[in-house]
Structures
1.
Amino acid sequence: MAPSFAFIGFGEAGSNVAGSLRAEGVERIATYDILFDDPAAGPALRQKAEDMGVRAADSIADAVAGADVVYSTVVCKSSIPVAEEAAKHLKSEQFYLDFNSISPGNKRRVAAAVAPSGARFVEASVMADVPGHAHRVPMLLGGDGARDFMALVEPLEFNLTFVQEEIGQASATKMVRSIMMKGLGALHLECMRAANHFGIEQSVLDSVEKSLSGRDWTENCSRTMSRTSIHAARRADEMGQVAETLREVGIDPMMAEATERRHRWCADLGLKEVYKDGPVDDYRDVLEKIRAAETKEAAE
């Protein structure tokens, strides 16, 4: 019999992974999201879960009861408080997997919060976008429960790599990688916005491609800008955790902080709602939507 799962948080990450597991035939999945209690957003989110065949629980305690694996898929700032609340209801035979993009220090704090329950902690670092990969998204794992978790879910063909039992290395890899990957998103936004002002977008991209050969930079720019415009708020939060990671080891996070600011700026434009049906893969469309959002903001 497949293991049972609980998801604390039913946003993009939690719902994608839960839906994928249901498609694989996992029958026992429950979830709780704080928005379930919101009179405006709650009914639709509960219905989304039920439509997937995922039981919408009334509380964290209700969601985790009897689950073999508990996923924490919440916003970064909620990782520790959610772990503290979940720990009140976890049992020693359960696994608690922190799926969130947080610093190594915060991963250790989550593990410490879970420890009194006796549940096995799994440090998970997600190394690609969850949409498109779902439960098979590449993950680096650490923690005292990592190896046994891998054995438990082996029939479900997760994409897992064990790093080490000591907590921190897996999340450090994710955080440090994000300096480059999320930094590219911020660079594309700033570079192409300026290029658009002067009407030189393609000239700039052609020049970059000559200097940095080996990839189609116009295609890369379109893909990066479109996805960044949708996920800017989450990526800004992640870059805050990247900056914290660098501070933990005495490095001034100049680039991480700048990247966080540019992603936060993008998030504040509200493009996630504009692209609620998915990315368009055309940087020109993104630039047009940025202009429209800035014009509207100026008028207000």
2.
Amino acid sequence: MTQENIEDKPRVLVIKLGALGDFLQALGPFAAIRRHHPDAQITLLTTAPYVEMAERCGSFDRVWVDRRPKLLQIPAWLRLRKELRSAGFTRVYDLQTSDRSGFYFRLFFPGPYPEWSGIAKGCSHPHANPNRDFMHTVERQAEQLEMAGIGRVPAASVDWMTAEIAHLQPEGPYALLVPGGAPHRPEKRWPAERFADLANRLAERGIAPLLLGTQAEAETLKAIEAAAPQVINRMGETNLFEIASLARHARAAIGNDTGPMHLIALTGIPTLVLFSHASDPTLCAPRADQVTLFQVASLAALESSDVLAALSLGEAAESPAPPGAP
């Protein structure tokens, strides 16, 4: 395609900055926007952790990194304003719908303004539902796009997320354990000793427990490893594409309400996500066919036998049905 033909294409901007679970739940809207604008040059404005996914998912022609300037970084704001205004965008889909992304609409002052789908005051295609904050992300984004003229939004797919995992994959059956989560939200994390007990119970059933996490979760993962010697600790060894590929071959996955569980759920394996009072699964839970949501008021009171029973892997330990499970 010649440069002249590229310049003639309509230009569309999509804004989605993160976090991981939110980005993954936007994959369906990304595909719907691509389908609705087949001849457009579509740019995604996102943050650095999601660039590779954005480039490989097939929905975008260009990916821009938002460096998220702080309030008083005036030169950075002026550069961003210049980039947005000079790009010639005819329509913007703000799927972040935050105060920050809404302010980006103001950067087009004094105009001309592109068509804008979002919640910015004065935009051309507002998501005009006063109850939008009480909707699950999937339904909220689908309704936003419907109000902007885009109909069916497909389910998110990560079939394109593949990687070589021979160096990571254990022999025989295994289950993924994801004990991490936001460090400032300890109430969203099942205690390490319970994960360790679950790991031991899985090993007794011939299912290798494989730990996933980052260096930021080192203390938790090392505590589990110390109490459950048969775990395979892949701390810091996996990227998102390798996690997706590992998940496809796993018997099941168990983890806290954290981003990698959204990715694992989308691979289609049985996935058990643990919620406490600190999260509302009706607003943010992973969506996939084989996802089980297990919610209790306090994760500290949740026994490993209850979790194992909910998984239904072989001979489950005796336990009651998951309390409060949707």
